[in-house]
Design brief:
The chain is of the alpha+beta class. It is built from 21 helices and 32 strands. Keywords: Kinase, Transferase.
Amino acid sequence: MSYHLGWHGGVHLTAPVSGANTERVRAIADGTVVFARQPTPHTDDAHHPQNYRGWTDNGCVLLRHETAIGEGANAQDIVFFSLYMHLGSVQQGIAAGRRIYRKAELGQAGQIYGETSRKIHFELLCDDANLAKLVGRISGELDTSRDGRVDATYGAVCFLLPANSPVFSQQPVGHLAAAHFQPPKPNARALLPPLVALTATHNTSAPLIVELRFAAGAGAPGQRGGLAITTLQLSGEVVGQVQQEPEAEYGLYEQAGAISRAIHGAAVPASATVYELLRFGRTVNSAHEAATPNTVPHWRKISYPGGEGWVDLNTQGIHKYSDADFPHWDGWSLIDDSSDGNSRCDSATIKGWLDANADGNVTVSEATAAMADAQVARKLAKAICKFPSEWIASTIDTRWGWLMQESVENTPAMSAADFQELKAHITAFCFDVPELTSATWHWHPLEFIRHFRKCGWLSLNELCQLLPRRSGSNAQQVSEIPWATATARFTPYYLHLNTTMRKYGMVSRIRQTHFLAQTYIETALWRTMEELGRAHQQRRRNGQLYWPAPAMQYYQAFYGRGAMQLTWAGNFDKYGTYRAFANVGASHQYVDNRITRTSTHYWGDPRDSNGVVVRQPQVWWPRYDPHDLVSEPFYACDSAAFYWVSTNTGGGRLNIHRVADQGLTTDAVGRASVLVNGGGYGFSERQGYAVYIDRYLGDGVESDPTRTFVVTYRGRNHNVYVDFTAQRPR
């Protein structure tokens, strides 16, 4: 807003300089052009409406975007708009109705009030219905009398601790809700001493917010798999020191397993259920995860006023939220108390932030000083404000007529002649489209982008664009996947793939790129969830039978299944234990008839380094049917992420995120490939898929249509060919 309290619908951005040129203006997301206008040619006529206080370009593009942030009607089919105003030129071919894709060039930034640096005015806006989807409400603060939304969950997880919550000075054992301490052994050969009950050393005197923010691959090297625990007052004021758990995210699988194994009794929670608790503080995916009872604790070390200690975040009375709830303690506010329909901010909330002497009036000097204050600026940046668009010509008099009236906020008043000159200036930028009438909620564009970068949810269209249109070993040997095929392949899986990536922390673009690139080769680009050939012997032309891969002879019926092609009975057993799958009934017939009530199978490669079989097979029955990882899309996706987070990357350090978080380097992709496949199969393809995905999921603006490069691994050169033909509906 202006110092005269005039609403301003967006921000002015300066185009970065790149060499002798400035960067082009690009679309922030996939969308459809609602309106486009080439700029009026520059003129030196001082009386031209666009020469008001210096030349201002009027080229503009308005885009309509559709996206999703979660599952269910209130988190999908979300519509918002982005506006790019003051363009010095608009890209040829940009016209109403045209489909535009993320990072597509829209034009060149122009001039604003005669400034020589190229700038644009940038807005993000939506209507009431879509604000409700994006934020979860359309007015007021977050309702703290109940848990937050689960249809969309991302970013930090927040816990509202009620007053009188007990805090313990010593770390309790992880699997007991009643706080106990485990004394150490007196010597190496002794048994563990009995547990000692702990007494709370502090009870909170007021409600507190405990925020858990997993690094999710962000931050400095060595800190990308950690957890930061911040305590806040309901006002948002930070309490004490931020508690750091450097390996917490990488270790969630091990922590969940340890808690599950230590619990005894009739209702032992599956490790998968405990993992959900540790990640989200509650069960989010209730369709596939059991509810976590309060008897399963979630102990974390927190700060409180005057000290620090351990609290159980899974006790009754603690409500849970995430960044998807736009909590007020994080600074978010919905400003809808300026409803007179003009372009002057009459919001009592905002004026209260600016009114330094609390006399009920905001002078120009007060507004100037307040807007320069960092704390006020943070509040304004996270204020989602409802006011009419400034680009509708028919409402200029209604919206700006107050400028001709003297007030504390508006002094001196504008003369009628000056107002007519201003009106002509404003009219030069106006355009009337129905969308501007209803989309009256304005976001700070940069805060909008920063916030939703935490989400990581990919709509079906966004996901399909990441499947290569053309791929092959070189330009002469390529196969093509049409859009309809890509859509058909992902449709059964995209919701489950998203919930899987959300649960296991594949929310950064780098982690998603690594993960998806590995699934592409394992599933033949999401064509199948079971190994081609299903590990049967093949027949040569001379009639002789052979095993296409040496290990196939030993894993046979436990061939690759799921999006990461889980292989060997041992891995299927491990996954079944993680999910606590029930045994099959006595009459069950396994889909693969090589598995029977008495058949035996190798849990892993039974051969030693000399190729001699040294391990014994075991009976699989009555465990679950491995075909579940093929027939159930959720298990196909979940098993892939299970393998990802449970795999030893070396030295007993589990979780392939450790490798992915090294970045999108050929070394990191290569190491992840070996960890997934165990050998060199598809090494070049995995490298190429990662580069392709990054082209469309990452932020780079490279435009080479194809690329060839060489990766050296274990002394061998691998030629990699990438065709960047866009996967589009055509």
